[in-house]
């Protein structure tokens, strides 16, 4: 087929999940609930960090960045997914698809840089408490966060441009519930080898280096915790680290399964579709609860905010 003279697709069809008769409303309700929990949990962190001076510290600054990323990451595709369920039309325009994919990978890639910064912050706070305040100043935190966002942008910009300029003439059906790189490249014409290699390299460099740094940081943190004289503090610290590492393993493991493949065209899209749930919906929803559920400072800030909003009734 002569791809140079083909009529370029103006819209795609998103297959979504395998249709189960009678389960459409249940799936819609579950996705809506998870998305709502993600917005509420992450939104609460952002608001509390902004309004409460006690939470304006490096750790919460990076957590608020992570919350912004999780909201953007899920909002890039879930509203469209819900609209498709309601309308029964699974079409998405070409420009919308490319825009969705760009922002999805922008937020997704930036997330790994921010998680790395959170690990660095916790390492300095626990392993070098006396030097922590002088190292993690507000200016340094702002520069690190800015570098993380620009790092995410420049990591995916070139391959995003290449993907958008490929010819899409042979098929309009994307076997996924959003415009992801693998399913989109599978229906693209022309030579997609360079885009696939870039996608593989970005995943290998960004994700694996972030994972390695995070794991090493937690090894040093655990080593420091073991030297604490108080058994209660050790148990509390280990409990917090364990919950963090569970989310880290789920996030990094699922992303490596999906994107660390030399040729995405030969990948099993059915398996990718299900594994994608872990890092596209579950991880953003769990992050605010995992990072703050055992945090007394956040709990106290929420209590103060509620007391201000709900005035006490006068005694009779």
TrEMBL record:
<dbReference type="InterPro" id="IPR047132">
    <property type="entry name" value="Olfact_rcpt_6C-like"/>
</dbReference>
<dbReference type="InterPro" id="IPR000725">
    <property type="entry name" value="Olfact_rcpt"/>
</dbReference>
<dbReference type="GO" id="GO:0004984">
    <property type="term" value="F:olfactory receptor activity"/>
</dbReference>
<feature type="transmembrane region" description="Helical">
    <location>
        <begin position="274"/>
        <end position="293"/>
    </location>
</feature>
<keyword id="KW-0675">Receptor</keyword>
<feature type="transmembrane region" description="Helical">
    <location>
        <begin position="132"/>
        <end position="158"/>
    </location>
</feature>
<keyword id="KW-0552">Olfaction</keyword>
<dbReference type="GO" id="GO:0005886">
    <property type="term" value="C:plasma membrane"/>
</dbReference>
<feature type="transmembrane region" description="Helical">
    <location>
        <begin position="242"/>
        <end position="262"/>
    </location>
</feature>
<keyword id="KW-1003">Cell membrane</keyword>
<feature type="domain" description="G-protein coupled receptors family 1 profile">
    <location>
        <begin position="41"/>
        <end position="291"/>
    </location>
</feature>
<comment type="similarity">
    <text>Belongs to the G-protein coupled receptor 1 family.</text>
</comment>
<dbReference type="Pfam" id="PF13853">
    <property type="entry name" value="7tm_4"/>
</dbReference>
<feature type="transmembrane region" description="Helical">
    <location>
        <begin position="193"/>
        <end position="221"/>
    </location>
</feature>
<dbReference type="InterPro" id="IPR000276">
    <property type="entry name" value="GPCR_Rhodpsn"/>
</dbReference>
<dbReference type="InterPro" id="IPR017452">
    <property type="entry name" value="GPCR_Rhodpsn_7TM"/>
</dbReference>
<keyword id="KW-0472">Membrane</keyword>
<keyword id="KW-0807">Transducer</keyword>
<feature type="transmembrane region" description="Helical">
    <location>
        <begin position="26"/>
        <end position="51"/>
    </location>
</feature>
<keyword id="KW-0812">Transmembrane</keyword>
<keyword id="KW-1133">Transmembrane helix</keyword>
<keyword id="KW-0716">Sensory transduction</keyword>
<protein>
    <recommendedName>
        <fullName>Olfactory receptor</fullName>
    </recommendedName>
</protein>
<dbReference type="GO" id="GO:0004930">
    <property type="term" value="F:G protein-coupled receptor activity"/>
</dbReference>
<keyword id="KW-0297">G-protein coupled receptor</keyword>
<keyword id="KW-0325">Glycoprotein</keyword>
<feature type="transmembrane region" description="Helical">
    <location>
        <begin position="102"/>
        <end position="120"/>
    </location>
</feature>
